[in-house]
Request: fold
Amino acid sequence: MTHQHITGLILAGGLGSRMGGQDKGLVELAGQPMVKHVMDRLAPQVHQLMINANRNAAAYSCLSPWVVADRLEGFVGPLAGLDAALHNPALEGDWVLTCPCDSPFLPLDLAPRLLTATRAANAHVAMASVNGQPEPAFLLAHRCVAPSLAAFLEGGGRQIRRWVVSARHVVVDFSDCPEAFRNINTPEELAGQTPGRSG
Reply:
């Protein structure tokens, strides 16, 4: 399997409360929307690139033809974005790789490392970790988990790690590049940042 089997999903469906309610994906970093920095690093690793957004759909549509809103109301979190992609008829990949819109330094080899790990472990879900700490918003999930994820959300589940451990999963160590998972949550963190070029 190669990147041709993977759909990238940038998670931009949150409220951005720590960014003063701004849509974080559209906040500018080095002259470009933050989501564009994520796209530039993720696009070469995947076949299709979707954006999960619950507002400003028109702005995101200028960046990707595949903009999907949560199926559930109420901004219930990243898993709702994954659920939306897995149930979207435009989904082309067998796998969906999620990345937050506020993580412009993500690894340039994120997809192949997660995919290799799922194959080795015969897993349906892979989750990144750094120095023993999970990075739960960086997930690779096979489309076969769509029913179990929908049931988890319908039952009130929201925590990513709780759902991951209920699936056939593998945790993948990225301790060699901890800075790649640094995100930008607040105006203070945004100030003075420059997107990384290394992977």
Remarks:
- The beta strands are 6-12, 28-29, 32-33, 48-53, 67-68, 95-100, 125-130, 133-142, 169-173.
